[in-house]
Write a structure and sequence with these properties.
- With 441 residues, the chain is an alpha/beta fold.
- The chain has helices at residues 10-21, 33-40, 51-60, 70-74, 97-109, 126-141, 161-166, 178-187, 189-193, 203-234, 238-246, 267-280, 286-298, 301-309, 337-347, 360-367, 377-380, 401-407, 422-427; strands at 2-6, 25-29, 64-67, 79-82, 115-118, 148-151, 171-174, 198-201, 318-322, 351-355, 372-373, 386-389, 412-415, 431-433.
- It folds into three domains: 2-201, 3-Layer(aba) Sandwich (Rossmann fold); 211-297, Rossmann fold, CATH 3.40.50; 299-433, NAD(P)-binding Rossmann-like Domain (Rossmann fold), CATH 3.40.50.720.
- It is 45% helix and 13% strand.
- The strands form three sheets. A six-stranded parallel sheet has the order 3-2-1-4-5-6, sandwiched between helices. A six-stranded parallel sheet has the order 11-10-9-12-13-14. The chain has a two-stranded parallel sheet with strand order 7-8.
- Strand 1 (2-6), helix 1 (10-21) and strand 2 (25-29) form a beta-alpha-beta unit.
- Helix 1 (10-21) packs across helix 3 (51-60) and helix 10 (203-234) crosses helix 13 (286-298).
- The longest helix is centred in the middle third of the chain and has 32 residues, at 203-234.
- The chain is elongated, with a radius of gyration of 24 Å.
- The chain starts with a strand and ends in an 8-residue tail after the last strand.
Length: 441
């Protein structure tokens, strides 16, 4: 089977590579000539554990190809996936200009039946717009070529994307015809053989499923962060509360870890887009609006604790920061809490020295000389007045406290991810602030 995937960003590259891993012949397309040249050389534009090796393996086995020509790749393809970006507009809605541009180009070159699949996260009604755009181009050419559209939202976690794709909890596919269902079943046959659940549904339901899933997870995070803040006020320990509710199978123990707020390319964008979709249909999603409000506030919690500790006088202070990416195992800094904290620290006159195992180049690209960059985690804390831990990378979990004591001006840690035990902090003599737990002094 042969397919095409338009877009070599996170979703497109991971999806195309994983399809190739199952034996499908895949051509990944992008208008960025440099990116395609780099991919053909084995240079991967994103960081995702295991992806580079898998790309090289499938290229060597002639199952994975990279091209800038959509027209050429359409030849003999049975399905074409649209996996381009859908950045948020100023009003929070998803910008579909790239999706519809691809749809029009498909219509300009289509010469046989194909299933046009939206893989990008898109709002309800996008498939109709894609179908209309393809059909409009066919009409301009005065040709009658049958095609179908389908919605196949991705459920990939950055840092675990390959496992998420190859060992999915579920595969959601929105279709409008038996022929489209037959094509998609052939494509996903390896997953059917391994008993991974495939749920076929109507297209609007599939489009809404992705937004609903991410919004539900974001809701759990914001709810737990709200509870964490209450815990500090009433003297409770949020970790105890989390364990207590997590043992309830109706709630579960995932996505109930308090912290400094969620970020990344999915949750913030998808929550905004779903709120906007509801508003456009004269319905207000009040819970989601509160989720967004709580998350925006939560990104400032660590700064507020630090600022209060220094009596609102941060001028000239050196603050070490461990972590820049919004989560471990990725270099993605989109909507990262680190960005909010850095902005507030620098505006307050503090000097920030940061270290991240993977996201240093992305940090330099985004922040330039606004902050300083350390060569390792201990270089970052040299002469630091305080340490902020904002990304829970594994290498930050068991630091050498003797080295910290020797290098830091103050034994002061602000833990935005609750990765340390207060009892251990007390044992080593650190003043320790975390989320939803008593401060150790």
């Amino acid at each position: 089977m042969k397919i095409s995937v338009v877009g070599t960003g996170y979703v497109g590259l991971v999806s195309g590579t994983c399809f190739a891993e199952t034996g499908v012949s895949v051509t990944c397309i992008d208008i960025d000539e440099k990116k395609i040249k780099d991919l053909n050389k084995g240079i991967i534009p994103i960081y995702e554990p295991g992806l580079e090796k898998m790309v090289k393996t499938n290229v060597e086995k002639n199952r994975l190809f990279f091209s800038t020509s959509l027209k050429e790749s359409l030849h003999e393809s049975e399905a074409i996936f649209i996996a381009v970006g859908t950045p948020p507009d100023d009003d929070g809605s998803a910008d579909l200009k790239y999706v519809l541009s691809v749809a029009r180009e498909i219509g300009q070159h289509l010469d046989h039946y194909i299933v046009v699949v939206t893989k990008s996260t898109v709002p309800i009604g996008t498939a109709k717009k894609v179908k209309a755009a393809v059909q409009d181009e066919l009409n301009k050419r005065n040709v009658d070529i049958d095609f179908d559209v389908a919605s196949n939202p991705e459920f990939l976690k950055e840092g675990d994307a390959i496992d998420d794709f190859l060992k999915p909890d579920r595969i959601v596919i929105g279709i409008e015809s038996e022929q489209a269902e037959k094509t998609m079943k052939r494509l996903y046959k390896p997953f059917l053989l391994n008993n991974h659940p495939i749920v076929f549904m109507d297209i609007p339901s599939a489009e809404l499923t992705k937004y609903t899933a991410n919004s539900m997870l974001a809701t759990k995070i914001s709810f737990m962060n709200d509870i964490a803040n209450l815990c500090e006020i009433v003297g409770a320990d949020v970790n105890m509360v989390r364990r207590g509710i997590g043992s309830d199978t109706r709630i579960g123990n995932k996505f109930i870890y308090p912290g400094a707020g969620y970020g990344g390319s999915c949750f913030p964008k998808d929550v905004k887009a779903l709120i906007k979709t509801a508003d456009e249909n004269n319905y207000s999603l009040e819970i989601l609006k509160s989720v967004e409000f709580v998350n925006d506030k939560q990104k400032s919690v660590v700064f507020n604790k630090l600022n209060s500790h220094f009596n609102s006088d941060l001028k000239g202070k050196t603050i070490a920061m461990w972590g820049l990416s919004f989560k471990p195992n990725t270099d993605d800094m989109r909507e990262a809490p680190a960005l909010v904290i850095i902005d507030k620290l620098t505006k307050a006159g503090a000097k920030v020295v940061a270290y991240d195992p993977i996201a240093m180049d992305e940090g330099k690209r985004r922040l330039g000389d606004k902050i300083s960059y350390a060569k390792d985690q201990y270089d970052a804390v040299n002469d630091a007045d305080a340490l902020i831990v904002i990304t829970e990378w594994s290498e930050f979990r068991t630091p050498n406290y003797k080295i910290l004591t020797k290098l830091m001006n103050n034994k002061l840690i602000f833990d935005g991810r609750n990765i340390y035990e207060p009892s251990e902090m007390k044992e080593f003599g650190f003043t320790y602030y975390s989320i939803g737990r008593k401060t150790v002094k």
